Amino acid sequence: MLLPRQTISHCKINGYDVYPETLLQVNVWAIGRDSRYWSKAEEFFPERFIDNSVDFKGQNFELLPFGGGRRICPGIQMGISTVELALTNLLYHFNWKLPNGMEGGDLNMEEAIGQSLTTSKKTPLMLVPINYSHPK
Ligand code: HEM
């Protein structure tokens, strides 16, 4: 969910009358899994973003990880930098493999059900790091 919004005037959404000062919850989780906008909507399929012009900075409403409009996340740059820095360090210093002969297709990508600010995996991801020494 995004931060709640309150309407300032009367509007119609999908045929429903929404009156002024109504509190609205925008379910971005559901928008991000809407098969009208996403193929294989329920699948973990990050390749969908290759050569895709859909941006995540609030201009394309089918993908709103940081929200949008006046209440868009003010920490967006810090959030992106933090995630990219951690991920690039992990990929730069290690090769990674799955434990016990597992293949990528064996991973359970289901989400845990429950009230939480963030979505977490039902089955935690376990990986084996292999030290990678860059040639001097
Ligand atoms: C990957 C990291 C992050 C994600 C995915 C994220 C996501 C979000 C989302 C979805 C919202 C609601 C926006 C809306 O309703 O339109 C939000 C709001 C907010 N975020 Fe973030 N955020 C992240 C990192 C950060 C960081 C690093 C900070 C601060 C250092 C931050 C501070 C805030 C604040 C203060 C709000 C409330 C803004 C308001 O009340 O108008 N966020 N964030």
From TrEMBL:
Sample GO molecular function, one term: heme binding
Keyword terms, alphabetized: Heme, Iron, Membrane, Metal-binding, Monooxygenase, Oxidoreductase, Transmembrane, Transmembrane helix
GO-annotated cellular components: membrane
Protein localization: Membrane
Chief location: membrane
PROSITE patterns: CYTOCHROME_P450
Membrane topology, record value: Single-pass membrane protein
Pfam families: p450
Cofactor(s) for this UniProt protein: heme
Binding sites annotated in the UniProt record for heme: 73
Similarity-based family: Belongs to the cytochrome P450 family.
PANTHER family in the cross-refs: CYTOCHROME P450 71B11-RELATED, CYTOCHROME P450 71B25-RELATED
Record protein name field: Cytochrome P450
Species per Swiss-Prot/TrEMBL record: Citrus sinensis (Sweet orange)
